[in-house]
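Entry 14. Ran structure prediction on the chain below.
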Amino acid sequence: MRWITGAALSLMAVLAPPLAAQEKAAPDYPPLPELVAERFSDGRFEPGDFDYLKGFFPEASEAEKAQYAQLTKWLAECEEQGRARLDAELEELGVSLELSTYTSAQASVCRQVVRGEQFQGRFATHADLKAASKEARLVFATLVETIRLTEQRVQPLESDFARELEVRPVGEQLIRLSFRWTRVPNDDPRLPHLSEDAAAVFNALVLGEMGRVDRENTAWLKARIEENDGWPSISQVGEKAADMAWLLVQHADHDPAFQLKALRLMEPLAAQGDVSKGNYAYLYDRIMLKLTGKQRFGSQITCKDGERAPHTLEEPDRIDDLRAEMGLDPISDYLKLFGECSTS
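Output, structure tokens:
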């Protein structure tokens, strides 16, 4: 069985000291512009009725347009500063990102601020956006409150790492599943039926909330790993909890440095059978695709010429052998799970 070899091994071999010694406080974003300063609270951005986007629309006053220009400048600064921090952190680990447009923990905070450009071509006026947001926010607020109440009910009464790992992903999974509500056609009577305009607003709100939840889960997992001196293995927390730890780090895409450190911690455990080989393979592909532009096991899928296909592979001629070593099905069977490529 092969683990991290060749170019990938050289990446891992130069990793800096252990996880606990490397972590830093969450990066600060640039000073908030007045237009949105009061809309941030406890890591969540509250857009209200999107009145801060008035300056994006043609009917805006010169003052409103100037305020929106200030906001877009701040968003660009946030992205730039966040990427610089991320590059510096990865440089300490001896690696760099192949994807030049990749975001960061800091930038993902700022990306909660919905931009007018996200609705380009959909709303002619701010009044149109405001009307659609009224419909969307009712559903979104219900979703967020339902998740909050669910998390309260399933949270263990006493601190127990394994039990906390089992229930921690509840919120992030419900958030992700809610994207199905806006698929067309939506013929499920149990789901809310939103207009196309409201669906666009709902998806923007959900995307921001998903980023917030993922950052919160990542911070929690980092702290618990430090407290427990290592990655949660099957022998330590059980198979279900170990799977949930992997799910949380798999979705920590805003923090590729943490994903890389987690991969390093998982490697010897996977070799011993104390971490799922399949989980290790999925995380390997997730992070190495960002760092090298290639994946080994074909878990990351895209559309190519109208057909489902894996992103660039390290060894395409050996893909099924490599997958078999990790207990994964042949790539042809795996691709069938994703259905047809969207033509929209």
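Residues 196-227 form the longest helix (32 residues). Will compare against last week's run tomorrow.
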